[in-house]
Design goal:
Strand order of the largest sheet: 2-3-1-4-5
Largest sheet: 5 strands, parallel
Radius of gyration: 15 Å
Strand content: 5-15%
Order of helices and strands: EHEHHHEHEHHEH
Number of helices: 8
Helix content: 40-55%
Distance between the termini: 28 Å
Number of strands: 5
Length: 172
């Protein structure tokens, strides 16, 4: 029997997937895994370094493989990188999984991350680029989601509880 995550978190960079994922894992008594962290550990380089030195296509191939492996191996809370849903095969793999799409608006993104240069896709005119990324990706997040949870104006504990509620799980 193969493993399956209890919930997969998707959404834009900086939405809080890692923080919320760790809280959810703790509340559910399971482990937490992040596919971006898997890539960094395997390559020994940051996501930004991979983007700059090897290019986005190389990173996306690594990401696709990391998601495939994690969906097959991990039985806890799983967070995917912001662009993982761009790949049609990855979206297909998410079918049948409980997927929570964490949302936020651009002002919340600025407040949380400052849209800093550590985000390789947001290095020039970050507000405009973030909006364009969201316009291109929003429908893909919605396509894979079994629940949509707004994070604007909520702290991570509130978002974690909203995910639990959206999935029909009782507060722990």
């Amino acid at each position: 029997m193969s493993a399956a995550p209890v919930v997969v978190l998707v959404g834009p960079m900086g939405v809080g997937k890692s923080t919320v994922g760790e809280l959810l894992a703790e509340r559910l008594g399971v482990t937490y895994r992040d596919t971006d962290a898997d890539i960094v550990a395997a390559r020994g380089r940051t996501i930004s370094e991979i983007f700059v030195d090897e290019g986005e296509p190389v990173f996306r191939a690594l990401e696709k493989d990391a998601v495939r492996r994690a969906l097959a191996e991990h039985d806890g809370v799983l967070a995917l990188g912001g662009g993982a849903v761009l790949d049609a095969d990855t979206r297909a793999l998410l079918t049948g999984h409980k997927v929570a799409y964490l949302t936020m608006d651009v002002e919340e993104a600025v407040r949380r991350t400052g849209l800093n240069v550590a985000r390789p896709l947001l290095t020039i005119n970050p507000r405009k680029q973030w909006r364009e990324l969201m316009e291109a990706r929003r429908h893909l997040y919605e396509e894979v989601a079994t629940a949509v949870v707004a994070t604007d104006g909520r702290d991570p504990e509130e978002v974690a509880q909203a995910v639990l509620d959206a999935m029909g799980w009782k507060k722990s």
